[in-house]
Amino acid sequence: MGALLQSWAGQVLNGLVLGNVYALMAAGLALVFGAARLVNFAQGSVYMAGSYAAWFLIARLGWPLWAALPGAAIAGAALGLAIEALAVRPYRRSGGVAPLLATIGAGMMLDGLAEVLFTPTPRSFPNLPFTARYSLGPVSIGGLDLLILCATALCALGLLAFLKLTRAGRGLRAAAQDLEAALQMGVRAESSGAAAFAIASALGALAGALVGLYYNFISPSVGFQAGLKGFTACVLGGLGGIGASMAGGLVLGLGESLGVALFGSSYRGLVSYGLLLAILFLRPEGLFGRRGRGVALSGGREIGLGSFLPLRGAWRPSKPLAAALALAALALPLANPGPYVLQVLAGAWISALFALSLSFVAGGPGIMSLGHAGLMAIGAYASGLLTLKAGWPFVPAFLSAGLIAAVLGAAIAFPALRLKGHYIAIAMLGLGEIVNQVILNWDSLTQGALGLAGIPAPRLLALEITSAGGFYYLSLAVLGAGFAALAAALRSPLGRTLRALREDETAAVSLGIGARSYKTLAFAIGAFFAGLAGALTAHLYTYVSHETFGSSYSILGVTMAILGGLGNLWGALLGALSLSALPELLRFAQGGRGIVYGAILLLALRFRPQGLLGSE
Amino acid sequence: MRNARRVSITILLALLAGGFAQAQGTEPILIGVSGPLTGPNAQYGRAWQKGFDLALEEINAAGGVRGRKLQYVFTDTQNDPRQTVAVAQKYITDPRIVLATGDFSSTSSMAASALYQRAGLVQFGFNNSNPAFTLGGDYCWSNSPSDANEAPAQAAYAQVLGLKNVAVFQLDTDWGKTAGDLTVAALGRDGVRVALREAYLPDEKDFKPSILKAKAAGVDGFVFVAYASDAALLVQQIRGQGIDLPIVANGANATADFPALAGKAAEGVFVAGDFSPDDPRPEVQAFAKKWRERYDEDLDYFAVHAYDSMKLMAAVIELGGPDRKAIRDAFGEVKDVPSIIYGKVSFNPVTRKVDDFLGARLVIRDGQFAVWDGKRP
Amino acid sequence: MPLLECVGLSRSFGGLRALRDVDLSVEVGEVVGLIGPNGAGKTTLLNLVSGLDRSDSGSILFRGEELSRSGPERRAALGLARTFQSGRTFLNLSVRDNVLLGAHARRAASRSGAARWAIELAEALLRPASLRAEEERLEAEAAELLGGFGERLAPRAADKAYVLSYANRRRLEIARALASRPALLLLDEPTAGMNPSETLETLEYLRALKARGQAMLVIEHKLPLVLGISDKLVAMDEGRKIAEGGPDEVIRDQRVVEAFLGKASPKAGPEAGHMGPASEED
C-alpha cells in the first residue's frame, strides 16, 4: 500500500511539474489571444529558442542560473517583439486566419534557423545545478522540481500583479474584454499588442529554459509539439482567460502523466490530443471558461476565411492553354528525363492532389483543414492493409481507401465543423495528430511503430506498375480525375452553395442552407481525394508509418494551397509543383528547408494572400 | 600499302584503347550513399562521413581499388523513405555508381530495395539490422550486427550480472520493436523475468511515470533498447529518482554521445557493445589512436562501423571489379576481410548477412567505455 | 388560422431583457409593420421568427406548426424568408447566383431528406438531365425576379454583387429572399440607407408584392413607408409590445408617442415624417 501511494504521489508530483510548464506556455498564449485575438503558433518556437538561450548563457558563457533564466526570458521577449512586428502586425489588415498562418510561417523559420545554427544534435548542460533530492513524505522531490514550481508561481503572481495593478496591464485586460471600447478609452492597440507578445514570449522562453534544464536536453525540434501542448492547455482551461488557461495547463500535465502511468508511454499523444478534442467537442469554452463567451461557436465575431481573401480575379488558363499543359505533362516521359525526375514528379502529382483537396475544402466552404495529412494516412493504411493483409486487388482497395477516408474523415471532423475560426484550426490540427497517434497505438491493426512495409505495387488488371514512368502516369491519371471532379463540383450548384457558406454563413443559413451538413459533405469530398493521394503514396513507396503524414505535411499542404490561391485548383497545382521542386533545388542548403517554406508562407500571405493565381 | 594502313589503324586503335583505358583509369570508382544529413538523425549521417573519410584516406593512399581512386557521393534523404526511393532512382541511372549503400533505418532502406533489386545494383544496408532487410533479393546485403545476435548477448549480460526481474525500455520505432521483441525473448530464455515493458516515442522526454511504475513493480534492474539521446535521458531520470539499480544498455549506445549527454548519471552503466575500444588487438588500438588524433574524440560505434563498411566495400570491389553484377557476386565470395568490429568478416551467402559477432561487455567508467571486469554490482 | 402566431416570446442576453412576453400574429396575405425606437427588440423578434436565434420561452406557430425547435433550414422549407438590417448579399458571387441561392430550399436536393447528399453529389459530378432541367427552370425564375426591378439588376445578372450600388444590393437581397417563394417575407429595414427616390421605388415594389398577396412583416423607421403598406402596425419599446392595431390609431397612441419622443427619434427629414404634434405642424 505504501509503495502504491508513493508511486501515485510521485506520479502526481510529476504531473504537477509538467503541468506548471504547460501553464507557463498557456499563460503566454492566453495573453496574446486575449489582447490581440490571435492564436500564436510561433510560441512553441520561442520556447525552443528560450532553451537554446539558456544553454548558450550557461554552457557557453558560463553564466550562473539565477542570471541565465531571466536572460533567457528577456531574449524571448525580444524575439516576441520581433515576431509581432514582422509576422503579425503586417497581417492584421488581412484579417481572418492570415495572422494565425503567418505565425505558423514564423515558427517554421525559427525552427529551421535553429537547426542550421545549432545542428540537430541534442545538447546538454555540463554541470547541472540543483540536482539534490529531498524527501517530502511519500514523495521524492528534486531541486529542479522545486525550481519549476517556484518559477511558475512567481510568474503567475507577477502576471497577476501586472494585469491588475499597472496601467499597461489594465489596458491589456480592457482590450481583451472589448477592443473598441478600450481603443476609445485611449488604450493603444498596437503597443498593447506588442507588450502582450513580449510578455507571452518571455513566459514561453522561460518555460523552454526550465524544461531544457529539467531534462538536460536541448534540441531544435521540440518547438512544434510544445506549442501544440500549450494550445491544448489553453483550450482545456478556456481560451482567453489567463487563469483558466494556466489551470488548464495543470490539468493537462496531470492528465498526461497519469495517462502515461496507466497506459504506457506511447499513449502520451493520444491522451493529450484526446483531451483537446473532447473539450472542443463537448465544452468548447473550456473547463473553467464561461459559457456563452461566444468565441467558439456561431454568433460572436466570425473569423472565417471569407473576410480574409479578396476573391476577385482568379486567373484560370484558357482552354487551349490548359490542353497544351495537359499534353506537355503527358508527353514529358517521352523526352526521357530519367527515372529520378519522373519519380520526383510522380511525388509532385500526389502532393498536387493533396493540395487540390485542401484547396477545395478551404476555398469551397472555407474550412482551414490543418490536419489534412491525417486523411492521407487513413487512405494509405486502408489501401495498404486491404492489399497486404486482406489480399484485395489494387483497384478495389485503392477506391475503397478513398471512400474510407471520406467517411471516416467526415465522421471525425463532424464535431469540429461547427466550431469557428481559431477553434476549428486547432481542432483540425489535433485531429491530424490523433489519427497518427491511433495508428501508432493500434498495434493489432496497423503494426504500430513498425509501420506497413512491403505494400504491393499498383496493379491494373494484368499490368504491374513498377517503373518510374509507370508511377508518373498513374499519379498523373489520378490527379487528372481528381482535378476534373473537384472542378465540376465547384462549378455546380453545390459549389455555389459552398461558396455562399464561406462568404456569409449567417445569410446562407437564413436561406435554409444547412451549414454543418454542407461543410461535412465538402469535407468528405476533399477527404476522398486526400485518401487517394495517401493510397498512392503507400503503393508507390511500399512503406508508410505514423510518421509519414505528420502535421508538417499538413502545414506544407496549406502553404501549397495558399501559394496557389485557395479554391483555385490550377493554383493548387502550381503551388504543389513549386513546393515539391524546392527540396530538389535546395539540396545544397542543409536544413534550410524550414526557413524557405516559412518565408514562402509569410511572403505569400503578405503580398499575395489571394495566391499566385488568385482565389476562386 | 594495305598493310601499312592496317598497321596504322591497329596502332591508332591501340592508342585509343590505351587512352581510353588511361581515361578510365583516372576516373574514380563511385559509391552512392543514401542517408540523413539533415533532420533528426543527421548526427549519424555525419558520423558515417567521418568513418568513410578516414577509411578512404587509407584506401586511396595505398593505391585505391584496382588502380583507381575510390570515392563516395552522399545524398541527403533525411531517413525519409520517400526520399530514399527517389535517391535510389538517381543512383540506378548513374552509370558511374557501382554500389549503393545506406539508408539509416531498415524501413527506409527496404522501401527502395525492390528498385535496387530490379535494377541490379547492390544495396549494401550496412546500418540495417532488421532481419527482413536482406529478404529483398540477392542484391540486398548487410554487415550490420544482427539484432538476432545482439539481443541474446545483451540478455546474457543482464543474466550474468545477476538480474532476475527487469524493466525493459524500448524505443517505439521499427528497429526498437524488432530488437525489443528479440531481447525480451532472449531474456525469457535466460530466466530473467520482464516485469515491465515500456515502449516510448523517439521525442519522449518525460520517463518519470514509467520509471515510477517500474519502481513500484519492484524490479532489480533496467534493460534498454534505445539510442544514445533517449538512453541518456532515461539514465538521468532513473538516477534522479534515487534509483541505483543496474542498467544494461544495447550496443547502439557505445558512442561518446551517450556519456556526454548523460553526464555523471552514465557512471556504472553496462553496455552490451558490439566491440570494445579497449580490445587489445593491435589494429583496434592503432585505429583508436588514429581516430583520436584525427577527430579528437573517442570511438563511436556508428562511425567505426562506417569505416569498417567502407573497407569492406573496397575489398569487394577489388575482388569483383567495378561492375555492378560482379560486385554482387563478390559479396558472396569475399572472405575474412579485416574489421575493427568483427575482427574478420565474411558473408553468409545464403542470408547475405554476417554471422560473425564478437560482442563486448562494456561498462562506463569516468565517461569512458571500459571492458567489464566481471564484478557483479 | 393565422399564418404566423407568436405567443409569449421572451429573450434575454446576459442581464439584458431584449424581449418580454411578446405576442404577434400575421395573417395570410397581411402586411404587418413593426415599429419602435432603437433597442426595442424588433430585430431580436425577427431573429427569433427566422430561426437565427432561439427564444428563452414562448412559442412560434407557422401555419400551425411549432417552430421554436426547428432550425433555419426547416423554416426556410416551410416558407419563411428574410432580409438583414445591414444587407447581407454574397458580394463575391454573381447577382444571378445570389438569387439562385435564394431558391435553395426549393431544390429537389433540399426536399429529399437523407437522399440529399446523393443528389448533390450526382448533380456536382454527373450533371444528369433531370437536375439540369431544374437548374434551368430556376435560372428562368431568377431572371424574372431580377426583371421585377426593371433595368437595375437584370442587365447585371452576371456581374459580381460587389459592383452594385448600395441600393441595388438591398434590392438584390429582396429578390434573393423572394426566390424561395416564401409564404411570409421578413424585411429588416429594407430601405435603410436609401435616399428618398430609392425609398419610394421600394415602396412601390413592396406594394406590388402585397397586391399579389405576399404576406410580410416589415421593420421600418421610415413612417411613410410603413404606413404606406401596412395593414396592421405593432409598436414595441424596451422589449415589450406597447400597441397594436390599424396604422393611424397606433401612431397616435399616447404610449407610442412617448416612447419615440423619449428615445432616438425616427429618421428626420421630409421622407420620414415625424410623430405627434410636430408632424401635424408640418
Give structural notes.
The complex is a heterotrimer of chains A (616), B (377) and C (282). Chain A is mainly α. Helices cover 70% and strands 3% of the residues of chain A. Chain A has helices at 2-36, 43-60, 65-88, 98-118, 143-165, 167-177, 179-184, 189-215, 223-237, 242-263, 268-282, 319-331, 339-363, 373-388, 394-413, 421-441, 443-446, 468-491, 493-503, 505-510, 515-541, 551-564, 569-585, 593-607, and strands at 133-136, 139-142, 452-453, 459-460, 463-464, 543-544. In chain A, the strands form three sheets. Chain A has a two-stranded antiparallel sheet with strand order 1-2. Chain A starts with a helix and ends in a 9-residue tail after the last helix. The model of chain A is unreliable at 293-311 (pLDDT under 50). With 377 residues, chain B is of the alpha/beta class. Chain B is built from twelve helices and 14 strands. In chain B, strand 1 (29-35), helix 2 (42-61) and strand 2 form a beta-alpha-beta unit. The termini of chain B are far apart. Chain C has one domain (4-89, 164-281): Rossmann fold (3-Layer(aba) Sandwich). Chain C contains eleven helices and ten strands. Chains in contact: A-B, A-C. At the A-B interface, helix 1, helix 10, helix 13 and helix 21 of A face helix 3, helix 4, helix 6, strand 7 and helix 7 of B.
- Across the major sheet of chain A, the strand order is 1-2
Rough shape of chain A? globular
The helix content of chain B is 40-55%
* Domains of chain B, number: 2
- Please, how many domains of chain A? 2
CATH topology of the largest domain in chain B: Rossmann fold
CATH secondary-structure class of the largest domain in chain B = Alpha Beta
Radius of gyration of chain B: 23 Å
Low-confidence stretches of chain A: 293-311
- Number of strand elements of chain A: 6
**Through-space gap between termini of chain B:** 93 Å
